[in-house]
Every structure is written in C-alpha cells, then in structure tokens.
Design a protein that fits this description.
By secondary structure, the chain is mainly α. Helices cover about 45% and strands about 0% of the residues.
C-alpha cells in the first residue's frame, strides 16, 4: 500500500477531475481517463496534488501514465516526497 493518502487523492479527484462518477467508488487501478477525466482536468488535478502534498511534478513526470489511476498518482507522489 502506498503512503500517499488515498483519501486525499480521492478528494482531489472529486474536486478537480470532473469524473463521471464518485472517486470513492473507483478501484486503485481503475483508469481515470476512462472514468471521464480530460487532459485539461488532469492539469488541475496535478496542481491540486502539488498543493495538497507539498510536492512539485518535474517535466519528465508530466505524462498521462502518471495520472492514469489512483495507484499511479500515489506512487508518483510518494517518489516525490522521498526526494
């Protein structure tokens, strides 16, 4: 299990991702883009994650796969918090 707060990530998704359903009902590996998140919304999610976790995503992490699922977001946030 990842140490980035699952609840915090889901709240950020609820507030910024414009998903068609409730993020609380998504599995950790569910595709957020298939659930309705657009690339524009993913930018808002990234900015909220940076603020919420006090991290900064470097350019090399600004790709679709990093924001594809709750698990991939948590893994990315954890790696940024460790550095």
């Amino acid at each position: 299990m990842s140490s980035a707060s699952d609840d915090t990530i889901r709240q950020i998704l609820a507030d910024h991702a414009r998903l068609s359903g409730d993020p609380a009902s998504l599995g950790r590996d569910d595709d957020l883009y298939a659930a309705g998140m657009t690339s524009h919304a993913s930018v808002n999610v990234m900015l909220a994650l940076e603020e919420g976790f006090d991290v900064e995503f470097p350019d090399e992490m600004l790709k679709r796969s990093v924001f594809q699922s709750i698990d991939s977001i948590a893994t990315a946030v954890d790696s940024l918090k460790e550095s």
